[in-house]
């Protein structure tokens, strides 16, 4: 897979990721951007963090607007209003609708574990 880069200003949404224990930085994506869950890097403010990046519409919650949501591993802070750049390295899995928020949270945990393993081996 060739490296994909997405850039945008982080906008406030509903805060569901944070409520599930996985805060995300949300940016708009151009039409035609591939969907799924990816591993990549998020650059912001001179720093860069390994990230789990979801691109798509959160169907579990009945949404249809597609966006990118990046969960920066081990990042603490507020990114609202800041410009970020996502560099996508590898697709981890396809996007899918979950029966409820708890099933999604469990999958997000599994995605994080896989991402940490990916980045540990990438060095």
What does this structure look like?
Strand 3 and strand 4 form a beta hairpin. This protein has 123 residues and is of the alpha+beta class. The protein has one domain (4-122): Riboflavin kinase-like (Elongation Factor Tu (Ef-tu), domain 3, Beta Barrel), CATH 2.40.30. Helices cover 21% and strands 37% of the residues. The protein contains 2 helices and 6 strands, in the order βαβββββα. The protein has a 6-stranded antiparallel sheet with strand order 1-6-3-4-5-2. It is globular. The protein starts with a strand and ends with a helix. The chain has helices spanning 16-19, 101-122, and strands at 4-9, 25-27, 36-44, 47-56, 67-72, 83-93.
List the defining traits of the structure above:
123 residues; Elongation Factor Tu (Ef-tu), domain 3; six-stranded antiparallel sheet; 2 helices
Whole-Å distance between the termini? 18 Å
How are helices and strands ordered from N to C?
A: EHEEEEEH
What does the largest sheet look like? 6 strands, antiparallel
| Proportion of residues in β-strands | 35-45%
Query: Over all CA atoms, what is the radius of gyration?
Result: 13 Å
Widest β-sheet, arrangement of strands: 1-6-3-4-5-2
**What is the number of beta strands?**
6
What does this entry show, briefly?
Helix content is 21%, strand content 37%. It is α+β, with helices and mostly antiparallel strands and 123 residues long. The chain has a six-stranded antiparallel β-sheet.
């Amino acid at each position: 897979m060739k490296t994909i880069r997405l850039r945008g200003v982080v906008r406030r949404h509903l805060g569901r990721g944070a409520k599930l224990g996985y805060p995300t930085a949300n940016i708009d994506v151009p039409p035609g951007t591939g969907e799924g869950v990816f591993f990549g890097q998020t650059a912001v403010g001179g720093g860069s963090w390994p990230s789990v990046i979801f691109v798509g519409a959160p169907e579990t919650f009945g949404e249809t607007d597609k966006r990118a949501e990046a969960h920066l591993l081990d990042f603490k802070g507020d990114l609202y209003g800041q410009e970020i750049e996502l560099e996508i390295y590898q697709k981890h899995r396809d996007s899918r609708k979950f029966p409820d928020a708890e099933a999604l949270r469990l999958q997000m945990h599994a995605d994080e574990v896989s991402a940490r393993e990916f980045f540990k081996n990438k060095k």
